[in-house]
Amino acid sequence: MDTTVDLDSFTSLVERPDDAARRAAEDRWLELDKPRGGLGQLEELGSWLASVQGGNRVRALSAPKVLLFAADHGIAALGLSKLPADGGTVRRVHAALDGSAPVAKLARRFGAGLRVIDLAVDADNEEFGFEVSRYRVRRGSGRIDVEDALTAEEATQAFRIGMAIADEEADLGTDLVLLGDLGVGSTAVAAVLIGALCGTDAAAVCGRGSGIDDKTWMVKCAAIRDSLRRARPVLGDQLALLAATGGADFAAITGFLLQAAVRRLPVVLDGVVSAACALIAQRISFRAPEWWRAALLTGEPALAKAYDRLTLTPLHDQQITMGEGLGALLALPLLQAASDALAEEPFVPAPAAPREPAKLPTAAELLGRL
Ligand SMILES: Cc1cc2ncn([C@H]3O[C@H](COP(=O)(O)O)[C@@H](O)[C@H]3O)c2cc1C
Ligand SMILES: O=C(O)c1cccnc1
Question: In which pathway does it act (predicted)?
Fold first, then answer.
């Protein structure tokens, strides 16, 4: 694999979504059998889908997929999460894989694929199998309040892996990505990146993450403060920033978001981790955010700041606070509804598995029971 990445190239490689397609969709809304504006915010959402799909026909979404980027973070060793630093991420990855995690149940419900990508979980290489861990960059990451999360080479490698995943998904025909992340301590790392990029202090970006108490919040806040000091000198260099105070998941998501925009693959962002990466990606390509939608606010103060900067408005407000792509996935029915309403070809669901016909009693049998 090439070991360098030309960030400047994204400025020209990322194009704008198709404005003519958006205008055609706006005209089509007016022709449909409904009052003007009758589908409310779904109309703007459908017009956005038209612009990212391009061309003159909106296609009903048929291959949405949740991508969960998983990694451990050295800073979790300070005890700033409700989940254990030792084994918490491993358990969440298993829950996503065995179908018990809420995101896995909902993905089945909504007909979305689910792919878990282990970038740096603190586990043996064999823990989750080849498909999940084939892109693993390292095991865990450095404690960003005192040392770099990654080496420069690892940051570049993770970034390129994210790009490769975007290419794989685009080539597979995935038509919408619901982005998620999984990792103990990740909200602290995201807060550092967003705090650094927005020029705020630690208290303004430190949230409750997995549901921490006041005492733990203070530990987390001090860790974010110390990490912010390490982030500021490298603010002008996105890969150096990802190496110093990010992680392999953050670097991969950033590369993924940019290459997804190059490949015209629309993405729904989830919580504060995807927002931190989106903010970094925006600094690399100012046009890229036009390919993304924000799913929700999770209560993390850093998330609201990031979406403000990105001028993205959350699609729903269900007060989900657990990450793992659940918020992004909950936005899927809205996007499906928008694309179904606008598409000229009706959506044809895959046939359900044949069922045994119900055996109802005959009238004579019923009478016989009386
Ligand atoms: C039972 C439980 C299940 C979870 N699943 C995801 N998270 C969430 O918590 C983590 C981020 O928060 P922090 O930065 O505080 O560690 C992520 O793994 C996120 O998915 C969970 C949290 C809890 C308590
Ligand atoms: O914003 C998030 O992604 C988030 C918030 C709380 C807990 N886990 C994740």
Answer: Nucleoside biosynthesis; alpha-ribazole biosynthesis; alpha-ribazole from 5,6-dimethylbenzimidazole: step 1/2
CATH of the domain at 257: 3.40.50.10210
Average pLDDT over the chain, rounded to an integer: 96
Catalytic residues: 324
- The interface predicted TM-score of the complex, written ipTM, equals 0.97
As beta bridge partners, residue 116 has: 68
Q: What is the pTM of this model?
A: 0.95
Give strand pairing partners of 269. 294
Ligand 2 center from residue 182 Cα (angstroms) = 9
- Assign 349 a pLDDT band (cuts: 50, 70, 90): confident
Q: Is the CB of 210 under 6 A from ligand 2?
A: yes
In a domain, 304, yes or no: yes
pLDDT score of 2:
65
- 321 Cβ inside 6 Å of ligand 1: no
Task: Give 1's pLDDT tier (boundaries 50, 70, 90).
Answer: low
Domains identified in the chain, total number: 2
Q: Which domain holds residue 276?
A: 62-334
State whether 149 and 39 are in the same domain: no
Q: Is residue 343 part of a domain?
A: no
Check pocket membership of 273 for ligand 2, CB cut-off 6 A.
yes
